[in-house]
Amino acid sequence: MNYNKNVNILIIQNRPGIGDQCLYLKYFHEISQNLNTKITLLTRKRSSAKVFLKDDNHLKEIKYFEELNNSKIQLYKWISENNFHKTFIFHYGLKFPFIAKIAGSKEVRFYGIIKKKTNIVTDGYNFTLNCLNKSQLDNQFKFVDEIPKTKNNDLIIGIGGSGYQKKWSVVKYINLINSLYKLSKFRLILAGGIRERVDAEEIRRGVIVKDIISLCDLDLSNCLKYIKKSKLYIGNDTGFMHLSAGYGLKSFGIFGDTPDSYASYTKKIFPIIPEGYKFVTHNSKAMDKIHENYVMRIVKSEFVNLFK
């Protein structure tokens, strides 16, 4: 694609998580394609955007707020120096629009002054449609990075989470893994961070799987090497779930304390919520109401198909 180098576009995305960055990615791609230009993304360091989006050909630059010391003055100077023609702010409030405008950005679009009671998927979708004057979006969520055609016989179990209420029990994971392994053998990839080291070790001791790799001590770039070549994700609603979906894996997310609607931005994530529930949201505190036999019934067909 021959991009217009004369148009300089800034997108500000202030939410910090990997999942947040994944959720908004197709909106960024849509803006880039419709304006025929690469974009500059300003976001949070915790989003790890520079790691998993480093090869995204829609992005000209990724900048972290932390590189500007979270300073309004440095943000003003940086925007002014880069001469952004248009700024799209995926956020409510006046702070960022005001800074972008006085720094010289000719067109500044943002959600609004007062936050509405909607979800972040709906906000991002409607904002992008309005900015581009479109009735529907053309892009599906995926990473531009080339996905390996040959997959390893790997099953990812996502044990991480931003809080204990968002994590499924280790005992249930052990039971599920053993039930799946009896159907067909696989290499087990335990996807978590440093805080999940103990959980990963407990799972290692409790399962009948012999070939196990823990990602808990790896940096994200090395974790991605395993995710790209795996076959299936089952686990908590965590960054690894969103990354797996971005690399084309069918991803079964166990939702008991976060809105399952957050997965609606992609067809690759299949939320598993407690049996009998119509939805879950923040503080539903329902992870313990999701039983391993119920999860097994949902994932079995896809697992058997992939690991036969």
Keywords summarizing the entry:
2 domains, alpha/beta, Rossmann fold, 5-stranded parallel beta sheet, 36% helix, 308 residues, 6-stranded parallel beta sheet, 10 helices, single chain
Question: How would you characterize the overall build of this protein?
Answer:
Helices cover 36% and strands 18% of the residues. It has 308 residues and is an alpha/beta fold. It folds into 2 domains: 9-132, Rossmann fold, CATH 3.40.50.2000; 154-307, 3-Layer(aba) Sandwich (Rossmann fold). The strands form 2 sheets. The chain has a 6-stranded parallel sheet, with helices on both faces. It has a 5-stranded parallel sheet with strand order 3-2-1-4-5, with helices on both faces. α9 (239-246) links the parallel β9 (232-236) and β10. α1 runs parallel beside α5 (120-132), α6 (170-183) packs across α7 (197-206) and α6 (170-183) runs parallel beside α10 (292-307). The longest helix has 18 residues, at 18-35. The chain is elongated and about 60 Å long.
| Percentage of residues in DSSP E strands | 15-25%
As laid out across the biggest beta sheet, the strand order is 8-7-6-9-10-11
Number of helices: 10
Q: Could you tell me the radius of gyration in angstroms?
A: 20 Å
pLDDT below 50 for ≥5 consecutive residues: which ranges? none
| CATH architecture call of the largest domain | 3-Layer(aba) Sandwich
The largest pleated sheet is described as: 6 strands, parallel
Number of strands: 11
Helix-strand category: alpha/beta
Oligomeric form: single chain
CATH class of the largest domain: Alpha Beta
Helix proportion: 25-40%
What's the CATH H-level homologous superfamily of the largest domain?
Answer: Glycogen Phosphorylase B
CATH topology group of the largest domain: Rossmann fold
**Could you spell the SSE succession in H and E letters?**
EHEHEHEHEHEHEHEHEHEEH
| Total domain modules | 2
On the 0 to 100 scale, the average pLDDT is 94
The best one-word shape is elongated
